Amino acid sequence: MKAAREVKPLSSLCERVSVGHVGPTSMHYCDDGVPFLRTQNIGDNGLQLEDYKRVTPEFHASLKKSQLKQGDLLLGRVVTDVMKCGIVPAELGEANCANMILIRPKEGLLPEFLNYMIKSPFAQDYLLGKRVGSAQQVVNTGILKAWEVPHVTLEEQKRIVAVLDAAFEGLTRATEHAEANLQNARELFGAFLEELFLKNGEKWLSANLQDTVSENCTLSYGIVQPGDDVEGGLPVVRPTDLGVSLISRTGLKTIAPEKADGYARTRLQGDEILLCVRGTTGVVAKALPELEGGNVTRGIVPVRFDSQKMLQDFGYYQFRSRHIQEQIEAQTYGAALRQINIRDLRKLSFTFPEVKEQERLLPMLQNAQRNCEALIEVNLAKTRRHIRPPPIPPAKGLCRRTHIKLGSPDG
Asked: How far apart are CA 222 and CA 113, in angstroms?
């Protein structure tokens, strides 16, 4: 076995490992001042410079310890499940920062190499294991200064960075390709619905939503203030639950039953179409029979069709069609909170054949949905595989112990 390469504390390889400005800053903001980076300017993929604050030149000059240079590394000081890191680019120019850890490597340590090393799985595990605090967990600069890292030659650092740059470039292309396939799979079912409903719309019956629902379907909003979770309480469906096509009791918020008093109009029977009318309007899902007796919150309207006019499943597919979605989008208003009024919802125009024809078409619709969902799952799996970052390659001559410090998957 080759001898272990020397390891050194990070502080010995850097000019500075310190915390940016801590304290009030808003009174120093201005429109044409010096760029001022904060925690929200560090994302999963590095610095996010599309939107940052600016401070007066005088305030910037007074904060000498947090003034930034090209090649500095900025780390999120407050940490949740990942320690985010980014390199200050040349184009940012003169800049400053607040409440972030600033690392300035010496000449013998490439910023790109240190950036990759900090983002490696084993480095993340080590640093996250050193968090302190209760309300907010932070990684102290003392931990980073004492962190032992391999002392790798500059040439070897360049080799490793080149390997990883190439790997991430390929990763980006593969991810974009997988995401494009996923979007195509999602659009495929929409295209099938569009062809069915638009092709036949002129020869089918036409009616507003309010004229196609059953007598006991009032098209009403749900519970306005559901209150806190209550163990064993009444299940309620919220807009955030509508990410799947079938809604069961699993994972639903449960509330005190009396909170539903006065909301009998939205009490579920167990096979309603649940339509989102606040937030991402137009999203729909189907309630399973086990939700009988449950309810919904303000952002959802339960829909039950008159079975003599429209089969429940046929209505569900019509809600998902472009024909209905465009009508919902046209009636949706608001910027901060997008929503559609009940009066506009009731006027949505549906086209549908006789019930017997609906019965004939339903198996085709259900089969198309199953095929598209299977295709979506295949592409989701591909996307999940592609977004895994490559491990840092071992530096030449490193033994297993030092290799792990670099973030190898071995161990």
From this structure: 54
Give the burial class of 281: count Cβ atoms within 10 A of its Cβ; 0-12 exposed, 13-18 middle, 19 or more buried. Answer: buried
pTM assigned to the model: 0.52
Looking at the chain, the whole-number percentage of residues with pLDDT higher than 90 is 53
- The CATH homologous superfamily for domain 7-152 is DNA methylase specificity domains (3.90.220.20)
Mean pLDDT of 125-133: 84
Q: What residues does 305 pair with on adjacent strands?
A: 213
Q: Which fold has domain 205-352?
A: Adenine-n6-DNA-methyltransferase TaqI; Chain A, domain 2 (3.90.220)
Domain residue limits, the chain:
7-152, 205-352
Q: For the chain, how long is the longest CA-to-CA vector?
A: 82
341 secondary structure, DSSP code = -
CA dist 332 and 76 (Å) reads 38
Q: Which helix (H) or strand (E) holds 96?
A: strand 95-97
